[in-house]
Design a protein that fits this description.
Blueprint (H helix, E strand, L loop, with lengths): L6 H8 L1 H20 L3 H7 L1 H11 L3 E4 L6 E2 L14 E5 L21 E5 L21 E5 L20 E5 L7 H11 L4 E4 L1
Parallel strand pairs: 3-4, 4-5, 5-6, 6-7
Antiparallel strand pairs: 1-2, 1-3
Helix pairs in contact: 3-4
Length: about 200
């Protein structure tokens, strides 16, 4: 018995561009799913545990205050859920974190260090998500995040406890000197560095 395949499906299967787009859309959906805040899980494990899980699921690393000096990069190495730990640092280098995922920072009271390096899924406007931790964030690196423009950095002027801000390799920022000067004016107690 001969199986009939609909013409549209045959066209799709034989077209590498169509398959590539479908594959990209699938991964975009997965990235969004990994970045949404799960309200039920938040109630169960609390903000710090949920934040740690979010960062790790998206390919980043975290450091807990209670285990200082040791970054965890593997989700399977997370301490058991019963352990009450607080996130101290986030290294989101080359991760797939997105703007909607930054809501995981809400309720985290001890995050003082964040590295956003080559975060290709962080879109324009994402830096406003750091305002969730504006009372504790002391060290911030933003580098190689190609979706940011000059205007995106203005919000960082609200991070008044920031001690060190490193900005590097921002190829779509048109006037980095102006951005740095504005941030130095808004954050007089912060060492703002352009590398």
């Amino acid at each position: 018995m001969k199986m009939l395949i609909p013409q549209k499906l045959t066209t799709f299967l034989l077209n590498p561009v169509a398959r590539s787009i479908a594959n990209r859309n699938l991964w975009a959906y997965v990235a969004i799913a990994f970045n949404r805040v799960d309200a039920e899980r938040l109630k169960l494990v609390g903000p710090d545990r949920l934040c740690a899980e979010w960062v790790l699921k998206n390919g980043g690393a975290i450091e807990f205050s209670e285990i200082a000096g040791r970054f965890i990069k593997d989700y399977n190495v997370l301490p058991p859920e019963g352990n009450k730990l607080t996130v101290k640092s986030i290294d989101a280098s080359n991760s797939s974190i997105m703007r909607i995922g930054l809501d995981h920072l809400i309720g985290c009271k001890k995050i003082d260090n964040v590295i956003l390096h080559q975060c290709k899924h962080l879109e324009s406007g994402s830096l406003s998500g750091l305002l969730h931790i504006q009372n504790t964030l002391k060290f911030l690196q933003v580098s190689g995040c190609d979706n940011f423009s000059d205007e995106d950095f203005e919000v960082l002027g609200n991070l008044k406890v920031l001690e060190k801000l490193t900005i590097a390799d921002m190829k779509y920022v048109k006037n980095i000197e102006s951005v740095i000067q504005k941030l130095r004016t808004a954050l007089p107690n912060c060492n703002v560095i352009n590398e």
